[in-house]
Amino acid sequence: MKKKCLRLAAGSLAVLMLFSCVWPVEAAKKKKTADRAEELLMLIEPEQDVEALRDSFYEILEDASMRDAVDTTDFTLADLDGDGIRELILITDETTFDIYTGVEGEARWVGSYEQALAELYKPKTGSGVYAVRDRKGKRYVDRITIEEDDLDTELGPQLAVEQVSVTNKAGKNFKDGTLLETYDAGLFIMEGDELVLQEEEEYIFPDGNKRYLTYDDLVGLDARTLRLGRNEFYARRGRIFQSSDLGGYFRSKSWYNPTISASDFDENVFNKYEMYNINFIWEYEQKYN
């Protein structure tokens, strides 16, 4: 009887120690997720306190979040005219960059930049952004800025695009600026008069590395979610994404630790469930989308 009591006491102590270890980890994870949400919400605030302009940007993001169910829509902010207030840049399907600036406290569309798979970089000096794209072994770099209407017409601010260079540096790191992080417009919804971050599950397929997915797991998922779910297996293994929308989405996840470039990633790291599920989702996408 005495030995049984001792065993029970030891078991209780082990459970207590387990919870004492798990709780701080879970608390830290929740805090990191909450901090990330706060960081995203603060990001869409212009650097200067311009209440009306902020609300106007919110309305644009609300519309974008609705479109995101059909077209992948991301956003970022950058100062394109040097006035200290960042402009809003909406990126649709990695092809169209719609740019909005503030005019008398209201957001005004100033133009679009259309180039497939271009990435935006903040220059080391000056305003504007670099749009960098690689195609057929060449690297094309454009500088995007906003110019004021010097002729005092009613046109207002205008988008200006200047080709900076064409080189043979495709695939190499771009050293003249810092990559702008993009965010998924679909992560935001309107609640009353406020734009808030949606609560999302950390994983689309939480146990996809431990079992084979079935048709029931995929039916009802839209094309965007299927694409994210397929790439989630790569993200869980630390792959760095060249696609800005994938990179932005997975960087919003507390578990994502991007350490392996696309060129260095080896699919042999996948276990049998992961490899099967990646191919299964891909085949489903081709058949039904």
Explain briefly what this protein structure is.
The protein is an alpha+beta fold and 289 residues long.
Strand order of the largest sheet: 4-3-2-1-10
Approximate strand percentage: 25-35%
**Structural domains: how many:** 2
Instruction: Work out the helix count.
Output: 6
Task: Output the radius of gyration.
Answer: 23 Å
What does the average pLDDT come to?
77
Uncertain segments: 1-26, 29-33
Helix content: 25-40%
Question: Based on helices, strands and strand pairing, what is the structural class?
Answer: alpha+beta
C-alpha end-to-end distance: 66 Å
Helix and strand element order: HHEEEEEEEEEEEEHHHH
Report the count of strand segments.
12
- Shape assignment: globular
The main β sheet shows up as: 5 strands, antiparallel
Give a description of the structure.
By secondary structure, this protein is an alpha+beta fold. It has 2 domains: 51-184, no CATH class; 201-288, Methane Monooxygenase Hydroxylase, Chain G, domain 1. The chain has 6 helices and 12 strands. It has helices at 2-43, 51-67, 215-218, 223-236, 244-251, 272-288; strands spanning 73-78, 87-92, 96-103, 106-114, 119-123, 129-135, 138-147, 158-167, 177-179, 183-184, 188-191, 194-197. The chain has a 5-stranded antiparallel beta sheet, sandwiched between helices. β6 and β7 form a beta hairpin. α4 runs antiparallel to α6. The longest helix has 42 residues, at 2-43.
